[in-house]
Write a structure and sequence with these properties.
The chain is of the alpha+beta class. The chain has helices spanning 31-37, 53-68, 96-102, 144-148, 154-157, 163-170, 180-185, 201-213, 221-234, 241-271, 274-289, 351-369, 377-394, 404-408, 502-513, and strands at residues 73-77, 83-85, 88-89, 113-120, 126-135, 173-176, 193-195, 292-293, 298-301, 322-327, 329-330, 339-344, 453-456, 459-462, 476-479, 482-486, 491-493. It is built from 15 helices and 17 strands. Bound molecules: glycine and manganese (II) ion (MN) (2 copies).
């Protein structure tokens, strides 16, 4: 049986990590000053926010979940503040399921918990759920929190919404987080509770204990909860019209970042530590256009492009290098683009770079052509990887006697994976690798359906020390990644307006740098 501290209301948010600090820099706060600082502030505006557009689309999602779990209490925490060091927190990001079901994005709201509370009719039959958002509402100026709490107090970190603000903005009931413990455990013996476990480990441990104490079986809890997590992940697979617009906007914002990088490429080469320069320029525009980057940007020059998760970005960019930029702007809604362009720092591909680039481009064309309803998700990879395998075969890189069919054989082949190890596609949305808990049947083996948003991103990677690669290819890595939405007819490439073929990329660089 798990052990955890007793569940108790807490006066300053319940799930954030504790900050460690001493009072070695504290100044004297007299009672006189404390009284003084709480007074003399203009009344707060009494206007309420309008119902947000994102909340309008969140409500029907909650209805779907409600219908799936009649009579059960469903708990979806946002998560809490995480300590970066000592008394400094990371920027808060809500759990993706919480964002999807509330419509809250950006950095909102630490320590909040969405509860879908079951409703029963007069016969005791389940009759839907009431959505209640427990969170830490704005405290009065007269409260101790206002000045004394540097982590949550309005004086230090700005105003939060009130209960009334959240009810108006989200169209659901709001309650103080201090009431959550009682509300969440009440009837726990008679009401099945499911919760999203990974949003906050401490809260999960506390609820596990409460559920066991109230008669639920200890060993079934995680499975029961995982079923909810799976449902919420799969719920994001078909995007509604608002989500598709978010993806469109995220892609458009990302184009701004890519063009800013292109404009600054000569400077990035000149300054040294050019990968950092590129990361910074893209990051500036990601923050300016949206909430920030949707994932750590990969700014990989030369051989670094062959390290697939190169997020250190510590290298120089030399004039003859390709720079592989894999980056996406995340909007305030948390929807993110995920785009890769591989750009010659000089503005011109060398012959060897172009040879590889053209192969990847053809593979991507084949992958894109396979994005249509009726095809399986896995068909996209199959189409792209066949083109990759054909090129590797034509270049004489597969082992002697190994044909294209041999290498594509899933049981005995796969030699091509030395140079293209990753999948060609993934779902994209609030998470860069969205719908991560969907089953293989629902994901890889599922048919594509209108409203799905996925990447198509083949690549070829020849490490500098790969003695099996032709010398002219060594140290060159190329990926081309676009974001597409499946339509009734086939697909729409949302990032089509970022040039892709080698000629188009060269012309794009020249055009952007001549502005
Ligand atoms: N940037 C992560 C990916 O392309 O999947
Ligand atoms: Mn990417
Ligand atoms: Mn991707």
């Amino acid at each position: 049986m798990r052990t955890a501290p007793p569940l108790a209301p807490c006066d300053h948010g319940r799930v954030s990590e504790e900050q460690k600090k001493a009072d070695n820099r504290a100044r004297v706060t007299t009672d006189e000053f404390r009284t003084f600082v709480k007074q003399g502030w203009a009344p707060r505006p009494d206007t309420r926010p309008d119902l947000s557009e994102s909340a309008r689309y969140a409500a029907p999602r909650r209805d779907v979940v409600s219908a799936q779990y009649p009579g059960e209490r469903l708990i979806v925490p946002a998560g809490g503040l995480k300590v970066r060091s000592n008394d400094t927190d990371y920027v808060f990001r809500p759990h993706s399921a919480f964002a999807h079901l509330t419509g809250l994005g950006a950095d909102r709201e630490p320590d909040a918990v969405l509860v879908l509370e079951p409703i029963f009719d007069e016969n005791g039959e389940p009759a839907g759920h009431e959505s209640v958002l427990f969170f830490k509402p704005l405290a009065d100026r007269e409260s101790d929190e206002f000045f004394d709490d540097a982590r949550y107090g309005e004086f230090w970190v700005g105003a939060r919404p009130t209960l009334e603000d959240i009810e108006a903005e989200l169209g659901l009931s709001a309650r103080d987080i201090g009431e959550f413990a009682d509300a969440a455990v009440k009837d726990a013996g008679r009401t099945t509770i499911r919760m999203v476990r990974d949003a906050d480990r401490a809260l999960t441990a506390q609820l596990d204990q409460a559920r066991v104490e109230n008669g639920q079986a200890d060993d079934g809890l995680a499975d029961q909860d995982d079923d909810l997590a799976h449902t919420l992940s799969h719920l994001r697979m078909i995007k509604d019209e608002w989500e598709i617009q978010q993806m469109r906007d995220a892609v458009d914002a990302t184009k701004v970042g890519f063009e800013a990088v292109i404009a600054d490429l000569p400077r990035a080469v000149e300054e040294g530590r050019g990968e950092r320069w590129v990361e910074g320029v893209f990051g500036l525009h990601a923050r300016h256009q949206g909430n920030g980057v949707g994932y750590d940007s990969i700014c990989a020059a030369g051989d670094h492009a062959n390290t697939l998760h190169w997020i250190k970005n510590t290298g120089d960019i030399e004039d003859g290098d390709l720079i592989l930029l894999d980056a996406g702007v995340e909007l305030d809604s948390l929807f993110t683009a995920d785009i890769t362009r591989t750009l010659p720092a000089s503005g011109r591909f060398t012959d060897a770079q172009r040879e590889i680039y053209d192969a990847v481009y053809k593979a991507q064309q084949a992958g894109l052509a396979a994005v249509r309803p009726g095809n399986k998700f896995s068909d996209v990879h199959a189409a792209a990887i066949r083109v990759i395998a054909e090129h590797l075969h034509a270049w004489g890189l597969l082992p002697d006697g190994v044909s294209v069919e041999d290498t594509l054989d899933k049981e005995h082949g796969q030699y091509h994976r030395r140079w293209m190890v990753h999948g060609t596609s993934h779902h994209l949305g609030i998470d860069v690798h969205d719908c991560a808990l969907a089953t293989r049947d629902e994901y890889m083996d599922a048919e594509l359906e209108p409203g799905m948003v996925l990447t198509v991103e083949p690549g070829l990677y020849f490490k500098a020390d790969d003695l099996l690669a032709p010398e002219r290819f060594r140290g060159i890595g190329v990926r081309i990644e676009d974001d597409v939405v499946v339509t009734e007819e086939g697909h729409e490439n949302l990032s089509e307006h970022l040039p892709r073929s080698a000629d188009e990329v060269e012309a794009w660089i020249a055009e952007v740098q001549s502005r």
